[in-house]
Amino acid sequence: MSADSSSPGWLLLLAQLPSKPSSARVALWRRLRAVGATTMVNGAWVLPQRASHVTFLAKLREGILQQGGTAFVLNIPGSPPDVDEAIVQRFRADRAREYDEFAERCTAFLDEIGKETGAGKYTFAEMEEGEQDLEKLARWLKKIQARDFFPDECGQQSAAMLTRCRSALDGFSQAVYIAEGVQEVTEGATWDPERTGG
């Protein structure tokens, strides 16, 4: 948190589900993680105070009660700065783990482009596979950023990493067009089948 910011306010979910079936607990964990909630202690989840989170937790509570569990959603409008900082650090640690995994996948993507380039494997199939992988990376980063409530340098580094991946694929694509004897149609240009042999 920045020095000039006051407590954002928190929503605390205290939840307990029956031990069986375990699938209900796993589903709850996944839904909370997907929205970006962090856990404080076992069965206690926190989200920043936002209207969308109020709605989400209210629906989640209903579902827990319907499954025979217990759930309480508490609104904590403010807390001491050291508590706020501890909570924010938990959120950042959760996102840092996700950004680290994202960076690993980006590195693997760049390695694959390098391998195909080194082998001179300039084919449309490889290019299409690269495009699909890049789209997956972009969607994944967007999901992480959507639950990154307290952004720091990790998010910026990941965005830069995605840009590197995009640039590497652009360069690879140019090489594919050259290898296949097709001139890439630049933005705003008209495709001419006589020039491309199509």
Continuous helix count: 6
What Rg is obtained from the alpha carbons, in whole angstroms?
23 Å
Number of strands: 4
The end-to-end span amounts to 57 Å
What's the oligomerization state? Answer: single chain
Q: Specify the biggest β-sheet.
A: 4 strands, antiparallel
Give the helix/strand layout.
Layout: E1 10-16, H1 22-35, E2 38-41, E3 44-48, H2 51-66, E4 70-76, H3 81-118, H4 124-146, H5 153-179, H6 193-196
Antiparallel strand pairs: 1-3, 1-4, 2-3
Helix pairs in contact: 3-4, 3-5, 4-5
Quick recap:
62% of the residues lie in helices and 12% in strands. It has 198 residues and is an alpha+beta fold.
Q: Explain this structure to me?
A:
This protein has helices at about 20-35, 50-65, 80-120, 125-145, 155-180, 195; strands spanning about 10-15, 40, 45-50, 70-75. It has about 200 residues and is an alpha+beta fold. It folds into 2 domains: about 10-80, Alpha-Beta Plaits; about 90-180. It has a 4-stranded antiparallel β-sheet with strand order 2-3-1-4, with helices on both faces. α3 (about 80-120) runs antiparallel to α4 (about 125-145). The chain is elongated, with a radius of gyration of 23 Å.
Question: Which tags fit this structure?
Answer:
alpha+beta, Alpha-Beta Plaits, 2 domains
